[in-house]
Design brief:
This protein is of the alpha+beta class and about 80 residues long. Helix content is about 20%, strand content about 35%. The chain has one domain. A hairpin with a 3-residue loop joins strand 3 and strand 4 (about 45-50).
C-alpha cells in the first residue's frame, strides 16, 4: 500500500494526496482499515477524499482521485481552505 500520490494535473487542477490513519484505539495503533486519502487541490485546499484499500497502488489511487475530482467539481473549482 502506498501513502502518497505525488502532484499531477487533472482537468486544470493540481492534485496531490496522502493516506492518513484516522483510527482510534484504546490499545496499540489505529486499524489500517480506518485510513483515508486526504486530497489537496491546487496546493491550498485539502479535503477528506475516500477510504484507503489494502491493495492501493499508484495507478488505482490516481484513478480514484480523478473520479473523486469529477464527483466534486463544485469543491475543486475555487481556491482557499476547506477548513
Amino acid at each position: 500500500m502506498i501513502d502518497h500520490v505525488p502532484k499531477f494535473s487533472y482537468r486544470g487542477r493540481t492534485i496531490e494526496a496522502w493516506c492518513e490513519a484516522a483510527g482510534v484505539s484504546a490499545w496499540g495503533p489505529g486499524r489500517v482499515s480506518n485510513a483515508f486519502w486526504e486530497v489537496e487541490v491546487n496546493g491550498d485546499s485539502r479535503y477528506y477524499g475516500f477510504l484507503s484499500e489494502p491493495d492501493d497502488d499508484l495507478e488505482s489511487v490516481t484513478k480514484r482521485l480523478c473520479a473523486w475530482v469529477d464527483a466534486h467539481l463544485d469543491l475543486t473549482t475555487g481556491t482557499g481552505s476547506a477548513d
